[in-house]
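pinging the channel bc i need a second pair of eyes. not urgent but kinda urgent?? the chain im working w is below, pasted from the shared doc
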Amino acid sequence: MTSTAQRVQHPFGPLFNEASRILILGSFPSVKSREQRFFYGHPQNRFWKVIAGVFGRPVPGTIPEKKALILGCGLALWDTIESCVITGSADAAIRDARANDLRIVLDHSAVSRIVCNGRKSQEMYDRFLLPQTGIEAECLPSTSPANAQWSLERLIAAWSVLKAE
């Protein structure tokens, strides 16, 4: 891992299909996620435990299992940021962000609801993407290990709004 800030491009595309109804947006992939080229790759991130808990499914271990969980629950995944200057993984280290074009997902799915995983994602969405989409996004508490004041049980309870249609 480099200790100097550098412009980093998002290394993978969105996960969705035509049946996806809710788009979950993170901010930008962590170093671990960028290495794995898939969402929420850091073992301490609670995202996969939260989604499994909300929908009463087993916690996925492999990328194919993670894809099946998301798509099987009518969800879509992506990030608000397409590229940024960053050192490491912390949202606080993100500078000079450029937004993803959400039309790739919105034009080819049934997404009518957008939720943001944490405040940085919400901040970037509101600043760059809300004018493009016209869809108000709901901010859910971050599943990041940096959000230690939220227990797994509290996160599952808060994220249970995903089941409300």
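so The helical segments are 31-36, 47-55, 63-72, 103-106, 119-133, 152-159. and Residues 6-163 form a domain with the Uracil-DNA Glycosylase, subunit E fold (CATH 3.40.470.10). — does that match what u expected or am i reading it wrong
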